[in-house]
Amino acid sequence: MNQDTICAIATAQGGAIGSIRVSGPEAISITGSIFKPAKTGKLLSEQKPYTLTFGRIYDGDEIIDEVIVSLFRAPHSYTGEDSTEITCHGSSYILQQVMQLLIKNGCRIAQPGEYTQRAFLNGKMDLSQAEAVADLIASSSAATHRLAMSQMRGGFNKELTELRNKLLNFTSMIELELDFSEEDVEFADRSALRKLADEIEQVISRLAHSFSVGNAIKNGVPVAIIGETNAGKSTLLNVLLNEDKAIVSDIHGTTRDVIEDTINIGGITFRFIDTAGIRETNDAIESLGIERTFQKLDQAEIVLWMVDAVNATSQTEQLSEKIIPRCEGKHLIVVFNKADLIEDKQKENLQSLLKDFPKESTESIFISAKQRENTSELQKMLIDAAHLPTVTQNDIIVTNVRHYEALNKALEAIHRVQSGLDSQISGDFLSQDIRECIFFISDIAGEVTNDMVLQNIFQHFCIGK
Protein backbone atom coordinates (compact mmCIF):
# COMPACT_ATOMS: atom_id res chain seq x y z
CA MET A 1 0.00 0.00 0.00
CA ASN A 2 1.31 3.44 -0.91
CA GLN A 3 2.40 5.39 2.17
CA ASP A 4 2.82 8.77 0.43
CA THR A 5 1.04 11.79 1.85
CA ILE A 6 -1.38 13.05 -0.78
CA CYS A 7 -3.21 16.31 -1.39
CA ALA A 8 -5.91 17.51 -3.79
CA ILE A 9 -8.40 20.32 -4.33
CA ALA A 10 -11.77 18.87 -3.34
CA THR A 11 -14.09 21.67 -4.49
CA ALA A 12 -15.13 22.89 -7.94
CA GLN A 13 -13.84 26.16 -9.32
CA GLY A 14 -15.94 29.28 -9.11
CA GLY A 15 -17.18 29.07 -5.51
CA ALA A 16 -16.50 31.51 -2.69
CA ILE A 17 -14.87 28.79 -0.58
CA GLY A 18 -12.29 26.20 -1.60
CA SER A 19 -11.18 23.04 0.18
CA ILE A 20 -7.92 21.08 -0.02
CA ARG A 21 -7.69 17.58 1.45
CA VAL A 22 -4.42 16.18 2.81
CA SER A 23 -4.09 12.53 3.87
CA GLY A 24 -1.24 10.27 4.86
CA PRO A 25 1.34 9.66 7.61
CA GLU A 26 2.77 13.19 7.40
CA ALA A 27 -0.49 15.05 6.69
CA ILE A 28 -0.53 16.93 10.00
CA SER A 29 3.18 17.80 10.05
CA ILE A 30 3.22 18.99 6.41
CA THR A 31 0.10 21.10 6.91
CA GLY A 32 1.58 22.47 10.13
CA SER A 33 4.76 23.52 8.31
CA ILE A 34 2.85 26.05 6.19
CA PHE A 35 0.08 26.95 8.68
CA LYS A 36 0.27 29.15 11.76
CA PRO A 37 -2.72 29.22 14.16
CA ALA A 38 -4.04 32.66 15.01
CA LYS A 39 -3.76 31.74 18.69
CA THR A 40 -0.05 31.72 19.41
CA GLY A 41 1.71 29.13 21.50
CA LYS A 42 -0.02 26.01 20.16
CA LEU A 43 1.09 24.08 17.08
CA LEU A 44 -1.34 22.30 14.74
CA SER A 45 0.16 18.95 15.78
CA GLU A 46 -0.88 19.68 19.39
CA GLN A 47 -4.54 20.30 18.52
CA LYS A 48 -7.16 17.71 19.45
CA PRO A 49 -8.76 15.64 16.67
CA TYR A 50 -12.09 16.79 15.21
CA THR A 51 -11.25 20.44 15.87
CA LEU A 52 -11.20 23.48 13.62
CA THR A 53 -8.25 25.83 13.89
CA PHE A 54 -8.27 29.35 12.47
CA GLY A 55 -5.00 30.78 11.19
CA ARG A 56 -2.95 31.73 8.14
CA ILE A 57 -1.07 29.93 5.37
CA TYR A 58 2.44 31.32 4.90
CA ASP A 59 4.97 31.08 2.09
CA GLY A 60 8.00 32.16 4.05
CA ASP A 61 7.01 35.54 5.47
CA GLU A 62 4.27 36.15 2.89
CA ILE A 63 0.66 35.53 3.94
CA ILE A 64 -1.21 33.50 1.29
CA ASP A 65 -4.63 33.38 2.93
CA GLU A 66 -6.58 33.19 6.17
CA VAL A 67 -7.90 29.64 6.50
CA ILE A 68 -9.58 27.10 8.75
CA VAL A 69 -7.88 23.70 9.16
CA SER A 70 -9.87 20.61 10.18
CA LEU A 71 -7.85 17.92 11.94
CA PHE A 72 -8.49 14.14 11.90
CA ARG A 73 -6.27 11.47 13.40
CA ALA A 74 -5.94 7.84 12.28
CA PRO A 75 -7.89 5.63 12.27
CA HIS A 76 -10.85 7.95 12.78
CA SER A 77 -10.91 9.73 9.42
CA TYR A 78 -12.43 9.15 6.00
CA THR A 79 -9.27 7.41 4.73
CA GLY A 80 -8.32 5.84 8.06
CA GLU A 81 -5.11 7.95 8.02
CA ASP A 82 -4.05 11.20 9.61
CA SER A 83 -5.85 13.88 7.60
CA THR A 84 -6.39 17.61 7.38
CA GLU A 85 -8.76 19.72 5.34
CA ILE A 86 -7.77 23.30 4.56
CA THR A 87 -10.72 25.60 3.91
CA CYS A 88 -9.64 28.81 2.20
CA HIS A 89 -11.07 31.38 -0.18
CA GLY A 90 -12.13 29.97 -3.53
CA SER A 91 -9.66 31.88 -5.67
CA SER A 92 -7.94 29.49 -8.09
CA TYR A 93 -4.69 31.40 -7.46
CA ILE A 94 -4.91 30.86 -3.70
CA LEU A 95 -5.77 27.17 -4.10
CA GLN A 96 -2.86 26.59 -6.45
CA GLN A 97 -0.47 28.47 -4.16
CA VAL A 98 -1.49 26.30 -1.19
CA MET A 99 -1.15 23.15 -3.32
CA GLN A 100 2.35 24.17 -4.42
CA LEU A 101 3.39 24.75 -0.81
CA LEU A 102 2.08 21.33 0.24
CA ILE A 103 3.90 19.60 -2.63
CA LYS A 104 7.08 21.56 -1.87
CA ASN A 105 6.95 20.27 1.71
CA GLY A 106 6.49 16.60 0.86
CA CYS A 107 2.99 15.92 -0.48
CA ARG A 108 2.15 14.59 -3.91
CA ILE A 109 -1.01 15.21 -5.92
CA ALA A 110 -3.66 12.51 -5.33
CA GLN A 111 -4.82 10.28 -8.15
CA PRO A 112 -8.56 10.14 -9.02
CA GLY A 113 -10.38 8.19 -6.31
CA GLU A 114 -7.26 7.71 -4.19
CA TYR A 115 -8.88 8.93 -0.96
CA THR A 116 -11.72 6.43 -1.29
CA GLN A 117 -9.29 3.72 -2.39
CA ARG A 118 -7.27 4.28 0.78
CA ALA A 119 -10.48 4.16 2.82
CA PHE A 120 -11.20 0.75 1.25
CA LEU A 121 -7.66 -0.57 1.76
CA ASN A 122 -7.73 0.61 5.38
CA GLY A 123 -10.99 -1.22 6.05
CA LYS A 124 -13.14 1.89 6.44
CA MET A 125 -15.60 0.56 3.83
CA ASP A 126 -15.99 -2.44 1.55
CA LEU A 127 -15.62 -2.16 -2.22
CA SER A 128 -19.36 -1.96 -2.95
CA GLN A 129 -19.61 0.96 -0.50
CA ALA A 130 -16.60 2.62 -2.12
CA GLU A 131 -18.21 2.33 -5.55
CA ALA A 132 -21.38 3.85 -4.10
CA VAL A 133 -19.39 7.01 -3.28
CA ALA A 134 -18.96 7.67 -7.02
CA ASP A 135 -22.65 6.91 -7.59
CA LEU A 136 -23.61 9.36 -4.83
CA ILE A 137 -21.52 12.13 -6.40
CA ALA A 138 -23.06 11.41 -9.81
CA SER A 139 -26.66 11.06 -8.53
CA SER A 140 -29.02 13.24 -10.54
CA SER A 141 -32.40 12.26 -9.10
CA ALA A 142 -33.99 11.32 -5.78
CA ALA A 143 -34.04 7.64 -6.80
CA THR A 144 -30.33 7.45 -7.70
CA HIS A 145 -29.48 9.29 -4.47
CA ARG A 146 -31.48 6.79 -2.38
CA LEU A 147 -29.86 3.80 -4.09
CA ALA A 148 -26.36 5.19 -3.56
CA MET A 149 -27.10 5.99 0.10
CA SER A 150 -28.48 2.48 0.66
CA GLN A 151 -25.32 0.93 -0.76
CA MET A 152 -23.05 3.29 1.21
CA ARG A 153 -24.79 2.24 4.41
CA GLY A 154 -23.77 -1.35 3.66
CA GLY A 155 -27.21 -2.93 3.19
CA PHE A 156 -26.12 -4.75 0.03
CA ASN A 157 -22.94 -6.11 1.58
CA LYS A 158 -24.77 -7.20 4.74
CA GLU A 159 -27.09 -9.45 2.74
CA LEU A 160 -24.17 -10.91 0.77
CA THR A 161 -22.15 -11.49 3.95
CA GLU A 162 -24.99 -13.55 5.44
CA LEU A 163 -25.10 -15.73 2.30
CA ARG A 164 -21.33 -16.12 2.32
CA ASN A 165 -21.19 -17.16 5.98
CA LYS A 166 -23.87 -19.81 5.48
CA LEU A 167 -22.04 -21.24 2.49
CA LEU A 168 -18.70 -21.21 4.33
CA ASN A 169 -20.22 -23.17 7.18
CA PHE A 170 -21.50 -25.88 4.86
CA THR A 171 -18.38 -26.15 2.71
CA SER A 172 -16.24 -26.51 5.84
CA MET A 173 -18.43 -29.42 6.95
CA ILE A 174 -18.19 -31.06 3.51
CA GLU A 175 -14.41 -30.62 3.45
CA LEU A 176 -14.26 -32.16 6.92
CA GLU A 177 -15.90 -35.24 5.45
CA LEU A 178 -13.03 -35.52 2.98
CA ASP A 179 -10.60 -35.90 5.89
CA PHE A 180 -12.61 -38.90 7.09
CA SER A 181 -13.38 -40.37 3.65
CA GLU A 182 -12.20 -43.83 4.67
CA GLU A 183 -14.67 -43.94 7.56
CA ASP A 184 -17.55 -42.96 5.22
CA VAL A 185 -18.73 -40.25 7.65
CA GLU A 186 -21.24 -37.57 6.59
CA PHE A 187 -21.05 -34.34 8.59
CA ALA A 188 -23.12 -32.14 6.26
CA ASP A 189 -26.82 -32.82 6.02
CA ARG A 190 -27.47 -32.94 2.27
CA SER A 191 -31.19 -32.15 2.62
CA ALA A 192 -30.39 -29.07 4.71
CA LEU A 193 -27.75 -28.03 2.15
CA ARG A 194 -30.28 -28.43 -0.66
CA LYS A 195 -32.73 -26.20 1.23
CA LEU A 196 -30.00 -23.61 1.82
CA ALA A 197 -28.94 -23.75 -1.84
CA ASP A 198 -32.54 -23.04 -2.89
CA GLU A 199 -32.76 -20.07 -0.50
CA ILE A 200 -29.45 -18.65 -1.73
CA GLU A 201 -30.46 -19.17 -5.37
CA GLN A 202 -33.64 -17.14 -4.75
CA VAL A 203 -31.73 -14.28 -3.10
CA ILE A 204 -29.05 -14.12 -5.80
CA SER A 205 -31.71 -14.31 -8.54
CA ARG A 206 -33.66 -11.47 -6.92
CA LEU A 207 -30.56 -9.29 -6.70
CA ALA A 208 -29.50 -10.09 -10.29
CA HIS A 209 -32.98 -9.42 -11.66
CA SER A 210 -33.10 -6.08 -9.82
CA PHE A 211 -30.33 -4.84 -12.14
CA SER A 212 -32.80 -4.02 -14.92
CA VAL A 213 -34.61 -1.64 -12.55
CA GLY A 214 -31.36 -0.34 -11.05
CA ASN A 215 -29.80 0.28 -14.44
CA ALA A 216 -32.90 2.16 -15.60
CA ILE A 217 -32.85 4.33 -12.46
CA LYS A 218 -29.12 5.00 -12.70
CA ASN A 219 -28.67 5.50 -16.46
CA GLY A 220 -32.21 6.39 -17.52
CA VAL A 221 -35.06 4.43 -19.09
CA PRO A 222 -34.11 4.06 -22.79
CA VAL A 223 -36.80 5.51 -25.08
CA ALA A 224 -36.37 5.17 -28.86
CA ILE A 225 -38.14 7.73 -31.06
CA ILE A 226 -38.66 6.08 -34.45
CA GLY A 227 -40.71 6.58 -37.60
CA GLU A 228 -40.53 7.72 -41.20
CA THR A 229 -38.59 10.78 -42.29
CA ASN A 230 -40.26 14.12 -41.51
CA ALA A 231 -42.69 12.56 -39.04
CA GLY A 232 -41.53 15.05 -36.37
CA LYS A 233 -39.11 12.90 -34.35
CA SER A 234 -36.46 15.58 -33.91
CA THR A 235 -39.08 18.21 -33.13
CA LEU A 236 -40.48 16.00 -30.38
CA LEU A 237 -36.99 15.39 -28.96
CA ASN A 238 -36.38 19.14 -28.78
CA VAL A 239 -39.74 19.65 -27.06
CA LEU A 240 -39.09 16.91 -24.47
CA LEU A 241 -35.58 18.20 -23.74
CA ASN A 242 -36.71 21.83 -23.94
CA GLU A 243 -33.72 22.72 -26.13
CA ASP A 244 -32.72 22.62 -29.79
CA LYS A 245 -30.74 19.40 -29.55
CA ALA A 246 -31.58 18.06 -33.00
CA ILE A 247 -31.67 19.88 -36.34
CA VAL A 248 -35.21 20.27 -37.64
CA SER A 249 -35.85 20.66 -41.36
CA ASP A 250 -38.49 19.97 -44.01
CA ILE A 251 -35.81 18.09 -45.98
CA HIS A 252 -36.26 14.31 -45.72
CA GLY A 253 -33.38 12.42 -44.06
CA THR A 254 -32.06 15.36 -42.00
CA THR A 255 -31.23 13.10 -39.03
CA ARG A 256 -28.71 10.55 -40.25
CA ASP A 257 -27.22 9.39 -36.95
CA VAL A 258 -28.46 8.62 -33.46
CA ILE A 259 -28.88 11.57 -31.07
CA GLU A 260 -29.20 10.81 -27.35
CA ASP A 261 -29.86 12.88 -24.24
CA THR A 262 -31.40 12.43 -20.81
CA ILE A 263 -34.02 14.37 -18.89
CA ASN A 264 -35.80 13.92 -15.56
CA ILE A 265 -39.59 13.67 -15.86
CA GLY A 266 -41.61 13.18 -12.70
CA GLY A 267 -38.54 11.99 -10.77
CA ILE A 268 -37.63 9.39 -13.42
CA THR A 269 -34.62 9.76 -15.71
CA PHE A 270 -35.38 8.98 -19.36
CA ARG A 271 -32.73 8.53 -22.02
CA PHE A 272 -34.29 9.66 -25.30
CA ILE A 273 -32.83 8.36 -28.55
CA ASP A 274 -33.72 10.24 -31.73
CA THR A 275 -33.10 7.99 -34.73
CA ALA A 276 -32.78 8.33 -38.48
CA GLY A 277 -36.06 8.25 -40.36
CA ILE A 278 -36.95 4.84 -41.82
CA ARG A 279 -37.38 4.86 -45.59
CA GLU A 280 -35.99 3.27 -48.75
CA THR A 281 -32.84 5.17 -49.76
CA ASN A 282 -29.76 4.81 -51.94
CA ASP A 283 -27.73 7.15 -49.71
CA ALA A 284 -25.02 5.02 -48.06
CA ILE A 285 -24.71 7.28 -44.99
CA GLU A 286 -28.48 7.49 -44.45
CA SER A 287 -28.69 3.68 -44.79
CA LEU A 288 -26.15 3.31 -41.98
CA GLY A 289 -28.28 5.64 -39.86
CA ILE A 290 -31.39 3.54 -40.52
CA GLU A 291 -29.48 0.40 -39.57
CA ARG A 292 -28.55 2.05 -36.25
CA THR A 293 -32.22 2.96 -35.79
CA PHE A 294 -33.14 -0.71 -35.61
CA GLN A 295 -30.22 -1.41 -33.25
CA LYS A 296 -31.45 1.28 -30.84
CA LEU A 297 -35.00 0.01 -31.19
CA ASP A 298 -33.82 -3.39 -29.93
CA GLN A 299 -32.14 -1.75 -26.91
CA ALA A 300 -35.10 0.45 -25.91
CA GLU A 301 -37.64 -0.36 -23.20
CA ILE A 302 -40.17 2.19 -24.48
CA VAL A 303 -40.74 2.92 -28.18
CA LEU A 304 -42.31 6.15 -29.43
CA TRP A 305 -43.43 5.47 -32.99
CA MET A 306 -43.94 8.88 -34.57
CA VAL A 307 -46.57 8.80 -37.31
CA ASP A 308 -47.46 11.78 -39.50
CA ALA A 309 -51.23 11.98 -38.89
CA VAL A 310 -51.78 13.38 -42.39
CA ASN A 311 -50.18 10.28 -43.99
CA ALA A 312 -50.85 7.85 -41.16
CA THR A 313 -52.43 5.07 -43.22
CA SER A 314 -49.53 4.68 -45.65
CA GLN A 315 -46.87 5.01 -42.92
CA THR A 316 -48.38 2.37 -40.62
CA GLU A 317 -48.91 -0.05 -43.52
CA GLN A 318 -45.32 0.35 -44.76
CA LEU A 319 -43.56 0.11 -41.39
CA SER A 320 -45.73 -2.24 -39.30
CA GLU A 321 -43.95 -5.38 -40.46
CA LYS A 322 -40.54 -3.86 -39.63
CA ILE A 323 -41.46 -2.31 -36.26
CA ILE A 324 -44.08 -4.50 -34.54
CA PRO A 325 -41.99 -7.71 -34.34
CA ARG A 326 -39.13 -5.72 -32.77
CA CYS A 327 -41.41 -4.27 -30.09
CA GLU A 328 -42.12 -7.60 -28.41
CA GLY A 329 -41.56 -7.21 -24.67
CA LYS A 330 -41.44 -3.40 -24.98
CA HIS A 331 -44.01 -0.69 -24.35
CA LEU A 332 -45.10 0.86 -27.66
CA ILE A 333 -46.67 4.32 -27.82
CA VAL A 334 -47.92 5.28 -31.28
CA VAL A 335 -47.68 9.07 -31.47
CA PHE A 336 -49.86 10.57 -34.19
CA ASN A 337 -48.06 13.85 -34.80
CA LYS A 338 -49.33 16.96 -36.65
CA ALA A 339 -52.81 16.27 -35.22
CA ASP A 340 -53.62 19.98 -35.59
CA LEU A 341 -53.80 19.41 -39.36
CA ILE A 342 -56.61 16.82 -39.31
CA GLU A 343 -60.26 16.76 -38.21
CA ASP A 344 -61.57 14.98 -35.11
CA LYS A 345 -63.45 12.49 -37.29
CA GLN A 346 -60.19 11.53 -38.98
CA LYS A 347 -58.66 10.83 -35.57
CA GLU A 348 -61.36 8.25 -34.89
CA ASN A 349 -60.60 6.52 -38.17
CA LEU A 350 -56.86 6.47 -37.44
CA GLN A 351 -57.44 4.54 -34.22
CA SER A 352 -58.66 1.62 -36.32
CA LEU A 353 -55.15 1.32 -37.79
CA LEU A 354 -54.01 -0.11 -34.45
CA LYS A 355 -56.55 -2.95 -34.28
CA ASP A 356 -53.91 -5.61 -35.05
CA PHE A 357 -51.30 -4.17 -32.64
CA PRO A 358 -50.66 -5.98 -29.29
CA LYS A 359 -53.36 -4.42 -27.08
CA GLU A 360 -51.66 -5.10 -23.73
CA SER A 361 -48.45 -3.21 -24.64
CA THR A 362 -49.64 -0.55 -27.12
CA GLU A 363 -51.02 2.93 -26.48
CA SER A 364 -51.66 5.87 -28.78
CA ILE A 365 -51.89 9.63 -28.49
CA PHE A 366 -52.51 12.56 -30.84
CA ILE A 367 -50.12 15.49 -30.48
CA SER A 368 -48.65 18.43 -32.31
CA ALA A 369 -44.97 18.59 -31.44
CA LYS A 370 -44.57 21.88 -33.30
CA GLN A 371 -47.47 23.51 -31.41
CA ARG A 372 -46.63 21.64 -28.17
CA GLU A 373 -50.17 20.24 -27.97
CA ASN A 374 -50.69 17.18 -25.72
CA THR A 375 -46.96 16.83 -25.03
CA SER A 376 -47.60 16.98 -21.26
CA GLU A 377 -50.01 14.06 -21.61
CA LEU A 378 -47.31 12.17 -23.50
CA GLN A 379 -44.91 12.73 -20.61
CA LYS A 380 -47.47 11.26 -18.19
CA MET A 381 -47.78 8.20 -20.45
CA LEU A 382 -43.99 7.80 -20.36
CA ILE A 383 -43.96 7.88 -16.54
CA ASP A 384 -46.65 5.18 -16.39
CA ALA A 385 -44.89 3.09 -19.05
CA ALA A 386 -41.59 3.13 -17.12
CA HIS A 387 -43.11 0.95 -14.36
CA LEU A 388 -40.34 1.91 -11.93
CA PRO A 389 -41.03 1.19 -8.25
CA THR A 390 -40.73 3.84 -5.58
CA VAL A 391 -37.23 3.43 -4.13
CA THR A 392 -36.34 3.92 -0.47
CA GLN A 393 -32.94 3.90 1.24
CA ASN A 394 -33.73 0.43 2.61
CA ASP A 395 -34.19 -1.14 -0.83
CA ILE A 396 -31.35 -3.28 -2.14
CA ILE A 397 -31.21 -2.85 -5.90
CA VAL A 398 -28.17 -3.64 -8.03
CA THR A 399 -27.00 -0.75 -10.23
CA ASN A 400 -23.38 -1.72 -10.88
CA VAL A 401 -22.43 -3.82 -13.94
CA ARG A 402 -19.52 -5.43 -12.09
CA HIS A 403 -21.85 -6.55 -9.30
CA TYR A 404 -24.36 -7.85 -11.85
CA GLU A 405 -21.73 -9.95 -13.62
CA ALA A 406 -20.46 -11.37 -10.30
CA LEU A 407 -24.01 -12.25 -9.24
CA ASN A 408 -24.65 -14.05 -12.52
CA LYS A 409 -21.48 -16.11 -12.05
CA ALA A 410 -22.47 -16.86 -8.45
CA LEU A 411 -25.89 -17.91 -9.73
CA GLU A 412 -24.30 -20.33 -12.21
CA ALA A 413 -22.21 -21.81 -9.39
CA ILE A 414 -25.18 -22.29 -7.05
CA HIS A 415 -27.10 -23.93 -9.92
CA ARG A 416 -24.24 -26.43 -10.20
CA VAL A 417 -24.49 -27.03 -6.42
CA GLN A 418 -28.22 -27.75 -6.76
CA SER A 419 -27.62 -30.06 -9.71
CA GLY A 420 -24.76 -31.81 -7.87
CA LEU A 421 -26.93 -32.42 -4.81
CA ASP A 422 -29.67 -33.89 -6.98
CA SER A 423 -27.20 -36.22 -8.71
CA GLN A 424 -25.39 -36.99 -5.43
CA ILE A 425 -21.90 -36.09 -6.67
CA SER A 426 -18.93 -36.50 -4.34
CA GLY A 427 -18.11 -33.94 -1.68
CA ASP A 428 -14.92 -32.65 -3.32
CA PHE A 429 -16.76 -31.56 -6.49
CA LEU A 430 -19.61 -30.12 -4.42
CA SER A 431 -17.19 -28.16 -2.28
CA GLN A 432 -15.51 -26.69 -5.37
CA ASP A 433 -18.83 -25.34 -6.70
CA ILE A 434 -19.74 -23.88 -3.30
CA ARG A 435 -16.34 -22.19 -3.08
CA GLU A 436 -16.82 -20.69 -6.56
CA CYS A 437 -20.13 -19.22 -5.42
CA ILE A 438 -18.40 -17.82 -2.30
CA PHE A 439 -15.63 -16.38 -4.49
CA PHE A 440 -17.99 -14.38 -6.71
CA ILE A 441 -20.07 -13.15 -3.74
CA SER A 442 -16.86 -12.06 -1.99
CA ASP A 443 -15.67 -10.33 -5.17
CA ILE A 444 -18.51 -7.78 -4.88
CA ALA A 445 -17.30 -6.60 -1.46
CA GLY A 446 -13.69 -6.59 -2.66
CA GLU A 447 -12.39 -9.42 -0.47
CA VAL A 448 -10.78 -11.21 -3.43
CA THR A 449 -10.50 -8.40 -6.00
CA ASN A 450 -7.14 -8.01 -7.75
CA ASP A 451 -5.20 -4.78 -8.27
CA MET A 452 -6.24 -4.38 -11.93
CA VAL A 453 -9.92 -4.38 -10.98
CA LEU A 454 -9.27 -1.83 -8.22
CA GLN A 455 -7.37 0.41 -10.61
CA ASN A 456 -10.19 0.26 -13.14
CA ILE A 457 -12.79 1.13 -10.49
CA PHE A 458 -11.04 4.07 -8.85
CA GLN A 459 -9.60 5.71 -11.98
CA HIS A 460 -13.13 6.83 -12.88
CA PHE A 461 -13.57 8.76 -9.60
CA CYS A 462 -13.11 12.52 -9.48
CA ILE A 463 -9.88 13.96 -8.05
CA GLY A 464 -10.22 14.86 -4.36
CA LYS A 465 -12.48 11.91 -3.59
Could you explain how this protein is built, in words?
By secondary structure, the protein is of the alpha/beta class. It folds into three domains: 6-122, Gyrase A, domain 2 (2-Layer Sandwich); 156-215 and 395-447, Four Helix Bundle (Hemerythrin (Met), subunit A), CATH 1.20.120; 221-386, 3-Layer(aba) Sandwich (Rossmann fold). 46% of the residues lie in helices and 18% in strands. The chain has helices at residues 27-34, 92-104, 114-121, 127-138, 142-152, 155-179, 190-209, 211-219, 233-241, 284-299, 312-323, 344-351, 375-386, 401-423, 427-445, 451-458; strands at residues 6-9, 17-23, 35-37, 51-59, 62-72, 83-89, 108-109, 221-227, 259-265, 268-274, 302-308, 331-337, 362-366. It has a seven-stranded mixed β-sheet with strand order 3-4-5-6-2-1-7, with helices on one face. Helix 6 (155-179) packs antiparallel against helix 15 (427-445). The model is unreliable at 246-257 and 279-286 (pLDDT under 50).
Characteristic terms for this protein:
46% helix, 16 helices, 465 residues, alpha/beta, Gyrase A, domain 2, Rossmann fold, Four Helix Bundle (Hemerythrin (Met), subunit A)
